[in-house]
Amino acid sequence: MGKKRAVWEQHHPTFLWKIQSGHRHKHGTRNTQSQPPSNERTLIALRGLDPLNRGVHLFRKITSLTSTLKIIGILGTGVLCACQPLQYSEPLRLSKKASVVKEATLPAAKENSSPEITPRVVNITLSGIRFEGVTFDTRTHQLRIIDQAGGPNSEYPNARSVASQTGAIVATNGGFFTPEGAPLGSVIAAGKRSGNWNSKSSLGSGIYRINAQGRASISRRTSFSNIASSIELLQAGPLLIENYGPIGGLSPDRSAARTILLNDGKDYWWIGITSPCSLASLGNTLSQASPTEWRIANALNLDGGRSTELYISPELRGGPIERRGFFNRPVRNFLILKTKSSP
Question: What are the C-alpha distances in Å from 261 to residues 2, 35, 182, 184?
Fold first, then answer.
């Protein structure tokens, strides 16, 4: 037995290293620095096996690999496994059905999440205040500013006149103006600017504007800085509702007819007039109810009192409507509603 071992050790010196290494490990004399690297130890172990054991070892390695991956990808060897191998003649692709389902789950764009609405006349009473105007969608219609450079009554004596000459379906009075007929705040109409920036009065604390991309909005004066980025702009005020919440400090005293502009923060808008009321009662009413079917995000007070007027053309169902007081005075600028395709 000793002779056979000597012969084996002579021809397999690595086997002797393994025996010695195991002895040192068992008796605590193993020196890790004397070990070959892990890849060399693997080769040593394989060289130290006879052909039969080497085949068994390789078979176990392959069996372990196939049980983990469940796929044998050795081409041309004819090796079989207990599981059925997967074969692909082309790269894996999503089916058309799967692709359609994935696209259907994508969220719609924010500005197009609500269905388009057509302009509609609204006449309703809320908390004793009568609201009369038109609701519209800025994806199909645009509320533009008409300013008279020569002052009130220099081009259009009233809302009906400006509507008939411009082809508008709705027209109302716009922002405030001085006794001399100059705008009380900044105005940009058709790209032309007039008036001066109103930085102090509450009558200029709100802004209606259309940006360079054609998007309309209502915002607070202090949150707006780049006037040049607007193609249409009108300073007015005060704000009655901001970001769906009521505005504090509105006057509860003077009762007068009002011209107001409302929106839902996206594409739905309402323009019209009210029966005489105070700013405080109007703001409180709009914070609890709406003259339309949608909730109000922002509400802007325009010029009112004797300047209040509204014209709705016969093109809309319920028209024509003309509201203008007997002692009404000519105004500096107007807001008109037209389809986006109109010049």
Answer: 108, 86, 22, 18
pTM metric for this prediction: 0.68
Question: Which residues, in sequence order, are CB contacts of 244 under 8 Å at separation 6+?
Answer: 265, 295, 296, 297
The separation between CA 301 and the C-alpha centre of its own chain, rounded to angstroms, equals 27
What tens digit of pLDDT does each residue of 10-46 get?
544 444 444 444 444 444 444 444 444 444 444 344 4
DSSP string, 257-274: EEEEEEE-SSSEEEEEEE
Q: Could you tell me the two tokens for 27?
A: 């008796």
Distant-in-sequence, close-in-space partners of 72: CB < 8 Å, separation ≥ 6:
66, 79, 80, 81, 85
Tens digits of residue pLDDT in 74-129 = 333 333 333 333 333 333 333 333 333 232 333 333 455 789 999 999 999 999 99
* CB-based contacts of 218, cutoff 8 Å, min separation 6: 206, 207, 208, 239, 261, 263, 298, 299, 300
Alpha carbons 200 and 204: distance in angstroms, whole number: 7
The partner residues of 334 in beta bridges, in order of sequence, read 146, 173
Residue 94 burial (C-beta neighbours within 10 Å; 0-12, 13-18, 19+)? exposed
Amino acid at the residue 8: W
Other Cβ atoms less than 10 A from the Cβ of 88: the count is 6
Q: Are 174 and 236 in contact (CB under 8 A)?
A: yes
Please name which of 270, 272, 250, 268 lies closest in space to residue 259, comparing C-alpha atoms. Answer: 272
Cis peptide before 238 (omega within 30 of 0): yes
Q: Which amino acid is at 83?
A: C
Q: Residue 183 carries which DSSP code?
A: B
